Amino acid sequence: MNPRDLDGELTRRFEEQRRADEAEAPDFRELMARARAAAKGRDFAPARQGRWARRAVFTAAASVALAIGLYLLRSAPEPRMPSNAPTLADWKAPTDVLLQTPGAELLARLPVLLSPVPGGEADEREGAPGAREATPRSTQTKVPHRKGVES
Amino acid sequence: MTPEEIEAELERLHGAGFAWALACCGRRREDAEDVLQTSYLKVLDGRAKFAGRSSFKTFLFGVIRRTASETRRRNAWRGLRLDDWMRRKEPPASETVPEERLTLQAALARLARRQRQVLTLVFAMGMTVEEAAATLSISVGSARVHYDRGKRRLAGLIGAKERA
Fold it and tell me: Which of A14, A147, B9, B60 could bond B124 through an S-S bridge, CB–CB 3.0 to 4.6 Å?
Protein backbone atom coordinates (compact mmCIF):
# COMPACT_ATOMS: atom_id res chain seq x y z
CA MET A 1 0.00 0.00 0.00
CA ASN A 2 1.51 3.34 -0.99
CA PRO A 3 1.53 6.22 1.54
CA ARG A 4 -1.35 8.08 -0.09
CA ASP A 5 -3.55 4.99 -0.09
CA LEU A 6 -2.57 4.34 3.50
CA ASP A 7 -3.55 7.88 4.55
CA GLY A 8 -6.85 7.57 2.71
CA GLU A 9 -7.60 4.19 4.25
CA LEU A 10 -6.76 5.38 7.76
CA THR A 11 -8.83 8.54 7.29
CA ARG A 12 -11.80 6.49 6.15
CA ARG A 13 -11.58 4.13 9.12
CA PHE A 14 -11.03 6.89 11.69
CA GLU A 15 -13.90 8.98 10.34
CA GLU A 16 -16.19 5.99 10.43
CA GLN A 17 -15.21 5.45 14.05
CA ARG A 18 -15.73 9.14 14.86
CA ARG A 19 -19.19 9.19 13.28
CA ALA A 20 -20.16 6.15 15.33
CA ASP A 21 -18.87 7.82 18.51
CA GLU A 22 -20.67 11.06 17.74
CA ALA A 23 -23.88 9.15 17.24
CA GLU A 24 -23.51 7.73 20.75
CA ALA A 25 -22.82 11.11 22.35
CA PRO A 26 -25.16 12.10 25.18
CA ASP A 27 -27.58 14.91 24.56
CA PHE A 28 -25.84 18.26 24.80
CA ARG A 29 -28.68 20.03 26.67
CA GLU A 30 -28.90 17.20 29.14
CA LEU A 31 -25.17 17.24 29.76
CA MET A 32 -25.17 21.01 30.20
CA ALA A 33 -28.07 20.77 32.64
CA ARG A 34 -26.13 18.20 34.64
CA ALA A 35 -23.05 20.40 34.54
CA ARG A 36 -25.03 23.41 35.75
CA ALA A 37 -26.63 21.37 38.51
CA ALA A 38 -23.21 20.19 39.58
CA ALA A 39 -21.99 23.79 39.51
CA LYS A 40 -24.91 24.92 41.69
CA GLY A 41 -24.47 22.04 44.11
CA ARG A 42 -20.84 22.93 44.47
CA ASP A 43 -20.02 26.47 45.34
CA PHE A 44 -16.87 27.32 43.47
CA ALA A 45 -15.83 30.15 45.72
CA PRO A 46 -14.97 27.89 48.65
CA ALA A 47 -13.16 25.61 46.27
CA ARG A 48 -11.03 28.48 45.07
CA GLN A 49 -10.60 29.71 48.63
CA GLY A 50 -9.62 26.19 49.54
CA ARG A 51 -7.08 26.19 46.76
CA TRP A 52 -5.65 29.48 48.04
CA ALA A 53 -5.75 28.18 51.58
CA ARG A 54 -3.82 25.09 50.52
CA ARG A 55 -1.27 27.28 48.76
CA ALA A 56 -0.98 29.53 51.83
CA VAL A 57 -0.50 26.55 54.13
CA PHE A 58 2.10 25.09 51.81
CA THR A 59 3.94 28.41 51.58
CA ALA A 60 3.87 28.85 55.35
CA ALA A 61 5.15 25.32 55.89
CA ALA A 62 7.94 25.88 53.37
CA SER A 63 8.87 29.17 55.06
CA VAL A 64 8.98 27.56 58.49
CA ALA A 65 11.12 24.71 57.15
CA LEU A 66 13.46 27.23 55.53
CA ALA A 67 13.72 29.27 58.72
CA ILE A 68 14.49 26.17 60.79
CA GLY A 69 17.09 25.10 58.29
CA LEU A 70 18.76 28.51 58.34
CA TYR A 71 18.68 28.60 62.16
CA LEU A 72 20.28 25.18 62.38
CA LEU A 73 22.93 26.18 59.87
CA ARG A 74 23.75 29.43 61.67
CA SER A 75 23.72 28.03 65.18
CA ALA A 76 26.21 25.30 64.45
CA PRO A 77 28.75 25.26 67.35
CA GLU A 78 31.76 27.40 66.56
CA PRO A 79 35.16 25.94 67.46
CA ARG A 80 36.21 27.31 70.84
CA MET A 81 39.78 27.72 72.13
CA PRO A 82 40.48 25.60 75.19
CA SER A 83 41.29 27.70 78.25
CA ASN A 84 44.87 26.34 78.58
CA ALA A 85 45.75 26.80 74.93
CA PRO A 86 48.96 28.85 74.35
CA THR A 87 48.62 32.27 72.80
CA LEU A 88 50.18 32.93 69.45
CA ALA A 89 53.15 34.78 70.98
CA ASP A 90 53.96 31.86 73.27
CA TRP A 91 53.78 29.24 70.66
CA LYS A 92 56.97 27.46 69.67
CA ALA A 93 57.43 25.14 66.82
CA PRO A 94 57.87 21.56 67.98
CA THR A 95 60.91 21.17 65.69
CA ASP A 96 62.86 23.97 67.38
CA VAL A 97 64.75 21.34 69.36
CA LEU A 98 66.48 20.24 66.17
CA LEU A 99 68.20 23.61 65.94
CA GLN A 100 70.00 23.07 69.29
CA THR A 101 73.35 21.78 68.01
CA PRO A 102 76.58 21.47 70.00
CA GLY A 103 78.49 24.76 70.03
CA ALA A 104 75.51 26.75 68.99
CA GLU A 105 76.08 29.03 71.99
CA LEU A 106 79.28 30.29 70.34
CA LEU A 107 77.21 31.68 67.51
CA ALA A 108 74.80 33.31 69.82
CA ARG A 109 77.29 35.79 71.42
CA LEU A 110 80.04 38.11 70.27
CA PRO A 111 83.64 36.85 70.57
CA VAL A 112 85.92 38.56 73.16
CA LEU A 113 89.39 39.60 71.92
CA LEU A 114 92.14 39.02 74.50
CA SER A 115 95.05 41.48 75.12
CA PRO A 116 98.23 40.77 73.08
CA VAL A 117 101.04 38.67 74.65
CA PRO A 118 104.33 40.66 75.01
CA GLY A 119 107.15 39.35 72.71
CA GLY A 120 104.75 37.16 70.87
CA GLU A 121 103.35 37.27 67.45
CA ALA A 122 102.28 40.85 67.97
CA ASP A 123 105.84 42.15 68.23
CA GLU A 124 106.86 40.32 65.15
CA ARG A 125 103.95 41.81 63.28
CA GLU A 126 104.65 45.32 64.51
CA GLY A 127 107.85 45.18 62.53
CA ALA A 128 111.15 44.62 64.15
CA PRO A 129 113.19 44.56 60.97
CA GLY A 130 115.79 41.88 60.88
CA ALA A 131 114.17 40.08 63.69
CA ARG A 132 114.40 36.87 61.75
CA GLU A 133 118.05 37.53 61.01
CA ALA A 134 118.63 38.01 64.71
CA THR A 135 118.01 34.36 65.21
CA PRO A 136 121.40 32.68 65.89
CA ARG A 137 122.76 30.59 63.05
CA SER A 138 123.46 27.79 65.34
CA THR A 139 119.79 27.31 65.80
CA GLN A 140 119.20 26.97 62.03
CA THR A 141 118.56 23.49 60.91
CA LYS A 142 121.13 22.08 58.59
CA VAL A 143 120.04 19.40 56.23
CA PRO A 144 122.80 16.87 55.71
CA HIS A 145 123.70 16.07 52.11
CA ARG A 146 123.19 12.44 51.43
CA LYS A 147 125.12 10.77 48.70
CA GLY A 148 123.41 8.84 45.97
CA VAL A 149 120.11 10.43 46.44
CA GLU A 150 120.47 12.83 43.54
CA SER A 151 122.16 10.45 41.04
CA MET B 1 -16.28 35.51 23.81
CA THR B 2 -19.62 35.89 25.57
CA PRO B 3 -21.05 32.94 27.54
CA GLU B 4 -23.69 32.48 24.86
CA GLU B 5 -21.07 32.28 22.14
CA ILE B 6 -19.07 29.82 24.19
CA GLU B 7 -22.12 27.64 24.74
CA ALA B 8 -22.93 27.73 21.02
CA GLU B 9 -19.39 26.62 20.21
CA LEU B 10 -19.58 23.85 22.77
CA GLU B 11 -22.81 22.62 21.22
CA ARG B 12 -21.31 22.73 17.71
CA LEU B 13 -18.30 20.68 18.84
CA HIS B 14 -20.21 18.41 21.22
CA GLY B 15 -20.13 15.25 19.10
CA ALA B 16 -16.47 15.56 18.21
CA GLY B 17 -15.70 16.46 21.82
CA PHE B 18 -17.37 13.30 23.03
CA ALA B 19 -15.46 11.21 20.48
CA TRP B 20 -12.22 12.82 21.65
CA ALA B 21 -13.13 12.24 25.31
CA LEU B 22 -13.76 8.57 24.49
CA ALA B 23 -10.32 8.36 22.89
CA CYS B 24 -8.72 9.98 25.95
CA CYS B 25 -10.53 7.69 28.40
CA GLY B 26 -9.68 4.36 26.80
CA ARG B 27 -13.14 4.21 25.19
CA ARG B 28 -14.95 4.01 28.55
CA ARG B 29 -18.24 5.76 27.97
CA GLU B 30 -19.02 6.70 31.59
CA ASP B 31 -15.59 8.19 32.12
CA ALA B 32 -15.87 10.07 28.83
CA GLU B 33 -19.20 11.62 29.87
CA ASP B 34 -17.78 12.67 33.25
CA VAL B 35 -14.72 14.16 31.60
CA LEU B 36 -16.82 16.04 29.06
CA GLN B 37 -19.11 17.41 31.77
CA THR B 38 -16.17 18.55 33.88
CA SER B 39 -14.56 20.14 30.85
CA TYR B 40 -17.73 22.10 30.06
CA LEU B 41 -17.86 23.23 33.68
CA LYS B 42 -14.28 24.43 33.52
CA VAL B 43 -14.98 26.43 30.39
CA LEU B 44 -18.22 27.92 31.72
CA ASP B 45 -16.99 28.92 35.16
CA GLY B 46 -13.75 30.37 33.84
CA ARG B 47 -11.31 27.83 35.23
CA ALA B 48 -10.31 27.25 31.61
CA LYS B 49 -10.14 30.51 29.72
CA PHE B 50 -10.09 30.77 25.96
CA ALA B 51 -7.39 33.32 25.15
CA GLY B 52 -7.86 33.22 21.38
CA ARG B 53 -4.30 32.03 20.67
CA SER B 54 -5.68 29.01 18.81
CA SER B 55 -9.01 27.86 17.46
CA PHE B 56 -11.76 27.13 19.96
CA LYS B 57 -11.68 23.51 18.89
CA THR B 58 -7.99 23.20 19.75
CA PHE B 59 -8.62 24.90 23.09
CA LEU B 60 -11.60 22.69 23.97
CA PHE B 61 -9.82 19.50 22.99
CA GLY B 62 -6.86 20.55 25.12
CA VAL B 63 -9.16 21.07 28.12
CA ILE B 64 -10.74 17.65 27.55
CA ARG B 65 -7.30 16.01 27.34
CA ARG B 66 -6.08 17.68 30.53
CA THR B 67 -9.28 16.78 32.38
CA ALA B 68 -8.95 13.16 31.29
CA SER B 69 -5.33 13.13 32.48
CA GLU B 70 -6.35 14.58 35.85
CA THR B 71 -9.07 11.97 36.21
CA ARG B 72 -6.64 9.20 35.33
CA ARG B 73 -4.08 10.46 37.83
CA ARG B 74 -6.70 10.88 40.55
CA ASN B 75 -7.94 7.35 40.00
CA ALA B 76 -4.40 6.08 40.10
CA TRP B 77 -3.81 7.85 43.44
CA ARG B 78 -7.01 6.75 45.03
CA GLY B 79 -6.63 3.22 43.80
CA LEU B 80 -9.18 1.50 41.74
CA ARG B 81 -12.10 0.00 43.60
CA LEU B 82 -13.12 -3.54 42.82
CA ASP B 83 -16.31 -2.59 41.02
CA ASP B 84 -14.39 -0.08 38.92
CA TRP B 85 -11.86 -2.75 38.15
CA MET B 86 -14.58 -5.19 37.19
CA ARG B 87 -16.23 -2.56 35.02
CA ARG B 88 -12.95 -1.78 33.32
CA LYS B 89 -12.28 -5.44 32.67
CA GLU B 90 -15.60 -5.86 30.89
CA PRO B 91 -15.09 -6.13 27.16
CA PRO B 92 -17.00 -3.60 25.08
CA ALA B 93 -20.23 -4.75 23.48
CA SER B 94 -18.69 -6.04 20.29
CA GLU B 95 -21.58 -7.90 18.78
CA THR B 96 -22.96 -4.77 17.16
CA VAL B 97 -19.61 -3.23 16.17
CA PRO B 98 -18.40 -3.95 12.65
CA GLU B 99 -15.23 -5.99 12.29
CA GLU B 100 -13.31 -3.15 10.67
CA ARG B 101 -13.88 -0.80 13.61
CA LEU B 102 -12.96 -3.49 16.09
CA THR B 103 -9.71 -4.03 14.21
CA LEU B 104 -8.96 -0.30 14.36
CA GLN B 105 -9.77 -0.10 18.08
CA ALA B 106 -7.61 -3.12 18.88
CA ALA B 107 -4.72 -1.75 16.86
CA LEU B 108 -5.05 1.71 18.48
CA ALA B 109 -5.08 0.13 21.93
CA ARG B 110 -1.63 -1.30 21.23
CA LEU B 111 -0.09 2.04 20.33
CA ALA B 112 1.60 4.42 22.75
CA ARG B 113 -0.83 6.98 24.22
CA ARG B 114 0.74 9.96 22.47
CA GLN B 115 0.79 8.16 19.11
CA ARG B 116 -2.86 7.19 19.55
CA GLN B 117 -3.83 10.77 20.43
CA VAL B 118 -1.94 12.35 17.53
CA LEU B 119 -3.39 9.89 14.99
CA THR B 120 -6.92 10.38 16.34
CA LEU B 121 -6.65 14.16 16.15
CA VAL B 122 -5.23 14.10 12.63
CA PHE B 123 -7.26 11.34 10.99
CA ALA B 124 -10.52 11.44 12.95
CA MET B 125 -10.78 15.12 13.86
CA GLY B 126 -9.23 16.52 10.71
CA MET B 127 -6.54 18.54 12.49
CA THR B 128 -3.12 19.33 11.14
CA VAL B 129 -0.08 17.99 12.95
CA GLU B 130 0.56 21.53 14.23
CA GLU B 131 -2.95 21.78 15.68
CA ALA B 132 -2.56 18.34 17.22
CA ALA B 133 0.71 19.48 18.81
CA ALA B 134 -1.03 22.55 20.27
CA THR B 135 -3.87 20.41 21.61
CA LEU B 136 -1.47 17.99 23.27
CA SER B 137 0.88 20.76 24.49
CA ILE B 138 3.89 19.18 22.81
CA SER B 139 6.30 20.49 20.20
CA VAL B 140 5.50 20.15 16.53
CA GLY B 141 8.64 18.03 16.07
CA SER B 142 7.49 15.56 18.72
CA ALA B 143 4.03 15.45 17.18
CA ARG B 144 5.53 14.64 13.78
CA VAL B 145 7.58 11.82 15.25
CA HIS B 146 4.54 10.39 17.04
CA TYR B 147 2.53 10.74 13.84
CA ASP B 148 5.07 8.96 11.62
CA ARG B 149 5.88 6.14 14.00
CA GLY B 150 2.25 5.67 15.02
CA LYS B 151 1.02 5.56 11.45
CA ARG B 152 3.62 2.96 10.43
CA ARG B 153 2.88 0.82 13.46
CA LEU B 154 -0.88 1.14 13.02
CA ALA B 155 -0.68 0.14 9.37
CA GLY B 156 1.40 -2.89 10.32
CA LEU B 157 -1.00 -3.92 13.08
CA ILE B 158 -4.10 -3.53 10.90
CA GLY B 159 -2.45 -5.37 8.01
CA ALA B 160 -1.35 -8.23 10.24
CA LYS B 161 -4.78 -8.49 11.80
CA GLU B 162 -6.54 -8.59 8.47
CA ARG B 163 -4.10 -11.08 6.97
CA ALA B 164 -4.65 -13.40 9.94
Answer: A14
